[in-house]
């Protein structure tokens, strides 16, 4: 017995370590990390060289569910309030209506290609209906792809919050099929009533428990090392209690994380460091278990059909859902196209595909294998093309200069400071003679690998690393003080415009200078306020607006949106040129409709005149 336990522990720990080290491949070649972890699980499984036979679908679903609760809680914790302000509307619609639309559209090719009944086809559509947060976060954050802020925020919030809807649809359809319910009226009523209860309770429990956890932990004194354990334990309690009450435990875990991540939490710094490692462990464990459960020898029977369904998901179902969901929010066509393409499927889809196996469906293995192949297709096609597609669509933003490192500090009471590190460049304002504010005096300077005190180092020199304690709200001022004067490359000029203009000047003056018309009531409005009115608040770096023959572009904007740098291009840039004749917004459709009606009106008038 002891030898058996030791062997299981050795195999499990060895697979985790192997997965962690193989992640170096993903960082080096840009492979989606999920693909690496799944590959390790498949190689270790019964059809791979590892030969491990694992067929316990129930245990796999239990392990995956706990891991997913931890991952969703972490997704909430790491979502800042600013990102929610930028993307709350479009991301919420995508995470709910978008998942439902994707499942409905995809059910059509599934029904005909896999010869499944309509409800089971809809079930598979729901199983693969959500995007994978781990894959999206890795490719956008770790992969270093700098894209427009609103697009990034929408993708990250959507991928982090759409799992509860996919889980709800899957569980509901599994229960409906198992109960033999077939009438549309019964299915619709069951859908609406269950959705309102699960999401209502999930949201309520997430907000209430998240707030109570923060208030409670801020009033107790625990050892620093115990805080992370207690917080994760309480997060899993929120997940479990909400599920027992009939709500969505996954939604509650995510919202509790959102609430806690945007409140002052004692021990929060130690927790975030612990949580990052725990989340990686949860992801690796879930991916390995799902890889072990799969039997690749069964894939060929439905391989080409599943690949076609995966392509239909990427090229038809998700684009339709994205277009309809984002139409009211004024996204540029290239932005909507990129959001449609970043629809990577992942571990949650494979996890949900276990439910038909647990329920004993005759088509359970077909659904599981098809979902697995669809996920692999998505990761292989979309995961490796993300960067070139982003560049082709012009949503890549030139890197922003700033601190090379920021270290959050755990201070008593309500004091908040960061330790920010800057590397001095030759033409930065401090090298050229500008004084450093008293509140930002350097605490340490590293020159040629040697640490020095400020009085010992003397005048700052290019190449120095400067360590400064500063409150987070003021680090934006330091970014401008220590950064190089902006020298935009030719490609950056194409993206940010040839000139920088004063955001406080009136839009009327700009209209007179460049020969375009402005409504008289708006002539005295500042250029910055004009952009805010047209683009909505909060704006992000890279947002742009074509006005007559010129294009106004947000080059930079601070956290509070009270100062901005605006670029001007004398003609629309390639970044604003639509690459596909798809994904029109309400505004574009209304303009095109008015133009068509105007042409029809002129045509009718000319015909009457000729008569």
Offer a few descriptive terms.
611 residues, alpha+beta, Na+/H+ antiporter like fold, Alpha-Beta Plaits, Uridine Diphospho-n-acetylenolpyruvylglucosamine Reductase, domain 3, 4 domains, five-stranded antiparallel sheet, four-stranded antiparallel sheet, 23 helices, 61% helix, 7% strand, antiporter activity, cell membrane, Na+/solute_symporter_sf
Folded structure, characterized:
The protein has 611 residues and is α+β, with helices and mostly antiparallel strands. The chain folds into four domains: 2-393, Na+/H+ antiporter like fold; 405-482, 2-Layer Sandwich (Alpha-Beta Plaits), CATH 3.30.70; 490-580, Uridine Diphospho-n-acetylenolpyruvylglucosamine Reductase, domain 3 (2-Layer Sandwich); 584-611. It contains 23 helices and nine strands. It has helices at residues 2-29, 33-44, 57-77, 81-113, 118-127, 133-142, 149-161, 163-179, 184-217, 226-244, 249-261, 268-293, 303-326, 333-341, 347-352, 354-358, 364-393, 454-457, 475-482, 490-496, 507-514, 527-535, 586-610; strands spanning 405-408, 418-423, 444-447, 450-452, 465-470, 499-501, 544-547, 550-557, 564-569. The chain has a five-stranded antiparallel sheet. Strands 6-9-8-7 form a four-stranded antiparallel sheet, with helices on both faces. β3 (444-447) and β4 (450-452) form a beta hairpin. α1 (2-29) packs across α12 (268-293), α4 crosses α13 and α8 (163-179) crosses α9. GO terms for molecular function: antiporter activity. One of its GO terms (biological process) is proton transmembrane transport.
């Amino acid at each position: 017995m002891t030898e058996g336990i030791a062997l299981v522990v050795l195999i499990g720990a060895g697979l985790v370590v192997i997965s962690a080290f193989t992640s170096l491949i993903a960082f080096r070649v840009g492979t989606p990390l999920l693909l690496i972890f799944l590959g390790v699980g498949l190689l270790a499984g019964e059809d791979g060289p590892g030969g491990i036979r694992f067929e316990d679908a129930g245990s796999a679903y239990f392990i995956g569910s706990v891991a997913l609760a931890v991952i969703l809680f972490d997704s909430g914790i790491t979502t800042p309030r600013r990102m929610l302000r930028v993307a709350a509307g479009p991301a919420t619609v995508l995470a709910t209506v978008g998942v439902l639309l994707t499942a409905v559209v995809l059910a059509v090719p599934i029904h005909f290609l896999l010869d499944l009944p309509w409800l089971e086809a809809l079930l598979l559509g729901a199983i693969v209906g959500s995007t994978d947060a781990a894959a999206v976060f890795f490719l956008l954050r770790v992969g270093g792809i700098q894209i427009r802020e609103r697009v990034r925020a929408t993708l990250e919030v959507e991928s982090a919050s759409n799992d509860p809807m996919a889980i709800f649809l899957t569980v509901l359809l599994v229960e409906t099929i198992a109960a033999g319910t077939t009438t549309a009226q019964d299915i619709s009523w069951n859908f609406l009533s269950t959705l309102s209860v699960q999401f209502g309770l999930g949201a309520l429990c997430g907000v209430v428990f998240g707030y109570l956890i923060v208030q409670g932990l801020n009033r107790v004194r625990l050892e620093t090392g115990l805080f992370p354990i207690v917080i994760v334990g309480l997060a899993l309690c929120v997940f479990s209690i909400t599920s027992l009450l009939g709500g969505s435990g996954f939604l509650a875990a995510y919202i509790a994380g959102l609430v806690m991540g945007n409140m002052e939490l004692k021990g929060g710094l130690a927790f975030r460091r612990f949580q990052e490692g725990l989340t990686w462990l949860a992801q690796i464990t879930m991916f390995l278990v799902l890889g072990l459960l799969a039997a690749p020898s069964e894939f060929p029977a439905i391989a080409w059909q599943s690949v076609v369904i995966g392509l239909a998901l990427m090229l038809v179902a998700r684009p339709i859902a994205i277009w309809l969901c984002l139409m009211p929010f004024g996204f540029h066509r290239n932005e909507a196209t990129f959001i449609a393409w970043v629809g990577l499927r992942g571990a949650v889809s494979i996890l949900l595909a276990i439910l038909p196996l647990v329920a004993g469906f005759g088509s359970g293995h077909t659904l599981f294998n098809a979902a697995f192949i669809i996920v692999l297709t998505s990761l292989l096609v979309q995961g490796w093309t993300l960067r070139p597609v982003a560049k082709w669509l012009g949503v890549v933003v030139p890197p922003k200069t700033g601190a090379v490192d920021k270290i959050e500090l755990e201070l008593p009471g309500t004091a908040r400071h960061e330790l920010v590190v800057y590397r001095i460049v030759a033409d930065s304002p401090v090298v050229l003679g500008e004084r450093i504010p008293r509140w930002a005096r350097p605490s340490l300077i590293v020159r040629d690998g040697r640490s020095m005190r400020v009085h010992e180092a003397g005048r700052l020199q290019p190449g120095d690393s400067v360590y400064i304690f500063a409150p987070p709200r003021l680090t934006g001022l330091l970014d401008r003080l220590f950064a190089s004067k902006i020298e935009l490359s030719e490609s950056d000029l194409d993206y940010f415009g040839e000139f920088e203009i004063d955001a406080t000047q009136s839009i009327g003056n700009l209209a007179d200078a460049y020969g375009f018309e402005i409504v008289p009531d708006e002539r005295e409005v500042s250029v910055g306020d004009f952009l805010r009115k047209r683009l909505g608040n909060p704006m992000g770096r890279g947002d742009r607006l074509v006005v007559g023959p010129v294009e106004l572009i947000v080059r930079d904007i601070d956290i509070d949106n009270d100062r901005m740098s605006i670029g001007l291009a004398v003609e629309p840039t390639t970044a604003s040129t639509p690459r596909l004749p798809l994904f029109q917004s309400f505004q574009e459709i209304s303009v095109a409709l008015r133009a068509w009606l105007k042409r029809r009106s002129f045509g009718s008038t000319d015909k009457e005149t000729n008569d």
